[in-house]
Every structure is written in C-alpha cells, then in structure tokens.
Amino acid sequence: MSSRVSKIPENQTKQAASVASKVLRDSKSTKKAKSLAASALTQRKEVKKGGAAYVIRSDKHERSLVANTASVQSVNEGTEKYDKALRRLAKK
What we know:
single chain, about 90 residues, alpha+beta, 3-stranded antiparallel β-sheet, 3 helices
C-alpha cells in the first residue's frame, strides 16, 4: 500500500475554517459535526501561527495532519543540514 503526502494550500485551510465556523453556529449540527468543526478551527489556528497542514492519502484512507511552528522549523533546519552534507559529499 502506498501513501502520498501533500501540503494543504493556505486558501483551503481558510475555506475549511469558514465552513467549520458555520457548522459550529448551526443549532441543527450534530455533536460529531461540531467536534470535527472545532478540530478544523484548531488546525487553522496552528497554520496561521506558522505551522503547516498536510494530507496523507493511501488507497483506503485519508488523514490530515497539522505540524506546529516548532515542528516545521525543525524539519526545515534538518533539511538544510542534510542539503549541506550532500553538497559537501558531492564536492569530494
């Protein structure tokens, strides 16, 4: 089974937050729907603070994941170190 990870564009997290807000304000929304909507708003807050939202898709499942700012910075720093090491090795 293969998985694909892709970053969710900023405008999609904004749209999801807008829909989530409407669900929370709707008195006819179920408890489960409101719970999911609250989760979407929390994810949006992390993205606005500098985090990143990703979707992980496999043949049978789809999950969203939000990395907070510290995690995103850590990955970026690790990537930079890895790139520097590869450049040094390429010069040898």
